[in-house]
Amino acid sequence: MRVSMATSAGRANRPNEDFAGAVPGAAVLLDGAGIPGSESVCSHGVAWYTHRLGGVLLGRLSRDDGRDLPAILADAIGEIAADHRGTCDITNPSSPQATVAIVRAHRGRLDYLLLADTVVVLGPAGGSLQVITDEREVTCRRVCSVPLDGVPTGTPEYARVRESCAEALRARRNQPGGYWIAKDDPRAAREAVTGSRSLADLDSVALLSNGASRIVSPYGLTGWPGVLEMLGSHGPAEVIGRVRQAETGTVTGRDDRIPDDATVVHCTPLP
User: Fold this and answer.
1) Vertex 10 angle, CA 149 and 48, to 5°
2) d(Cα 115, Cα 48) in Å, to the nearest integer?
3) Can you name the residues that pair with 26 across neighbouring β-strands?
4) How far apart are CA 175 and CA 161, in angstroms?
5) pLDDT in tens, 22-58
6) CA 219 – CA 30 distance, rounded (Å)
7) Which of 44, 131, 204, 224 could be bridged to 123 by S-S, CB 3.0 to 4.6 A?
8) CA 97 – CA 50 distance, rounded (Å)
9) Shortest CA distance to 184 belongs to which of 75, 78, 100, 102?
10) Computed from CA positions of residues 266, 196, 125, 131, in that sequence, does the dihedral angle turn out positive or negative?
11) 234-247 pLDDT, tens per residue?
């Protein structure tokens, strides 16, 4: 299959914490979680984590040994945890972590895995497209953010309540009833959203980090069919460019308006 991809850092003075890559028959996309204070508990940083984890995933996927995707991800998480367990406080809630999306063409089927808020869009050869994401983090974030309702932004009270909300969200990470993300515990991989579709039913697949999926929500610039049409006619860079245009002139301070790292991977035609 032919794979095209594009990525863009959200801010010029910070490293891009997204990672995207592909090997024959498989592609991965990781979105690093840039949590304030992570530098004090891990000297390597979030970008290091996503690039290391992404590279290990690609190496394991290239073996094409038939292992299921959660097992591959679990081994990769364990390997990276071992790499810096001796030097960094990897169990700290602020230590580097990342969302994960993997797709793999294998034995006539497309297998997929998602952990946290990346998006996979399956483009049909006929019929309706399928949008797959892991809603658990978004649900937890919405619940934990309720105390912010009605608090004026930019005030000391807003900053205090927002930090309290962030602590509540971190407490739900990699916990039953909460949400799951790649960090230091390989068991999180078994909680991923997974599935499989016949390759005969598909003609493309797209992976988007949450910074790129803003083109649909919250910005509403197009729907998912429009995203696939844009990718087919103009490529991944066009999607990111539209997001960046929407971010200009917006109100600073709202989480969904601050520019975020944005990455898109587009695979077509499928074998």
Assistant:
1) 110
2) 19
3) 23, 104
4) 23
5) 999 999 999 998 676 677 889 899 999 999 999 999 9
6) 22
7) 204
8) 7
9) 78
10) negative
11) 999 999 999 999 98
